[in-house]
Each structure stands twice: as C-alpha cells, then as structure tokens.
Amino acid sequence: MKKLPKWSKVAIVGTLMGTCFGAGVYAQDVLQRVDAYLRSDYKVVVNGQAVQLANPPLIYNNSSYLPVKELASHLGAVVNWQESTKTIYVVPRVNPNQPAEGNESNYTEIILQYPFAQYMDYQGATYPVLLNNTDQTYYRLSDIERMGIRTDGLRKAKEKFTGQVYVSETELKNVWGNQPPQMSYSRYESFVVSGETDSLKLKALKTYVESYRYFVVDKVSYSWNPVIIDKLPEENTYYYLLNNNGHFFKTTIKLTPFTNYSNEISDYLVASTSVEDIEAGKVVN
C-alpha cells in the first residue's frame, strides 16, 4: 500500500474548491485523470463555526478541494449550474466598485408609473423581476436580493403606495458591472408569478387571472391588466398587483386544495378579497 505523505491540518476554507456537479460526457482531451485523497479527518470552519460536510475534503497536489455547492450553503451563497456552457456560477458576489456608503433608510420616493414584470437570466438561473419606469428604471429590491446581488451601500427608493423598496439601474451598475441580468428568451409568459413553482397552483392562478381579466359595467368594457403575483409567507396566499387604465389596484388571492377520490390534490379552488384601490385620490387617465 502506498504510504500517505504527511498532511497539514485545514482549519479555514481556502479559495480552491471542487464541485459536486457530475462530469458528464466530455471529449477525451478535456478530462485529466489524477490521484487524490479523501480526508474525512479534516475539519472545516466557516465564520468561526465548525461545519460538517457530507462530502469530505479532497487533497490533490497539496491543495484542498471542497464541494462548492455544499460549502456555498454554509456561506449563504447560491450555486447554479449551466449545462449548455459547462459553467458553475456562485452568487452573491461583491464588486470592488460598490460604494461604501449609501442611503439605507431615508428612501427617495417614487410612484408606480410604468411597472412591468418579466423573467430575467442572471448567473446561470432565471428569476422573476418587477421593474418600474419613472425617471429611470428601478428594480424591486426583493427580486434583486433573490438573485444574490449585494445592495449594501446602494441608494434605494420606496414606492409611495405599495411601500415596496426599489434600487435604480444606475445604482445597480456599480454592483453587477458588465454582467447585468438579461431578459430571458427561454421563458416568456403573459404575466409573472413570483415565488411559486408548483404547476397545479400556477395553473389555478393563471386560470383565475384570465377568467376575471375582462368585465363590463353599464355596457362599457373594462379590463384588468396583471402586473405581478407574489407568493406571501402564509401558505397558498398571494398578493396580486394589477392596473386598469393606468390606475393600480391590489387583491389577495387564496388557494384551497381540492382532492379526488384517492385523497390526492387534483386542483385548487381560488378565492380573492375585494379589489383595493392603492392609489385612492389619484385621477385616472
């Protein structure tokens, strides 16, 4: 048996990290076979706290390699794998041009003017994003944070009627540099649902929106134009932002599961609160 060399103890995570993604099928000249060792006796400490990795560190050529996806979870980061380009994205990242100081609580006030939601590609994943165009384009803060983009020190704005916080595209350019989010061409839908991935729930929400999109009052036709549906912390509950003729409203949607004879969920019943005018007093165009 080959005698193992004497190894130094690892206490702090280094910058070299292996991945937990499968190698897949590659051309032979891309792969390189090496001899390495798994060291289950190594300890890993992240931010002063010992962590137990399911996959032990790998030692090769006197360097320590750790599973990037598992390690990222301890660092509060997200790891995305893009098969088409064989690229691993680790987010969040911090741009050195990010300003050290900014407005964190004394927000600039903006109003809903031309809000629109769309799916955007960023660092190997696709995210729903709500944008609002006033004097410039603003990105909703909660969507930006979901992407893993750091906004510490960036000046922020608060929308007058919804209370939601936004960050201007001008400010965000200090963080994402030359790799901004891009409109997704692989995912396009008539309206965006944020935070929900269950196909049955998405179907119920979309059916509800389309069913009540058009209505007639005193023989005059009107239409609700959906802006975005956001999943709320309460189970099966959603915040729906919509507009009519440039005036904005909101309602709360609640889903109730409907089970079949096998006691399996086959559909969802949809109920909503009355539509609330969030711009009371504003003159409708």
UniProtKB/TrEMBL annotation:
InterPro entries noted in UniProt: Cu_amine_oxidase-like_N, Mao_N_sf
Signal peptide, first to last residue: 1-22
One Pfam entry name: Cu_amine_oxidN1
Residue intervals of the Copper amine oxidase-like N-terminal domain: 42-90
Swiss-Prot/TrEMBL keywords: Signal
Highest taxon, organism lineage: Bacteria
SUPFAM superfamilies found in the cross-reference section: Copper amine oxidase, domain N
Protein name stated in the entry: Copper amine oxidase-like N-terminal domain-containing protein
Organism whose genome encodes this protein: Paenibacillus allorhizoplanae
Organism placement in taxonomy: Bacteria, Bacillati, Bacillota, Bacilli, Bacillales
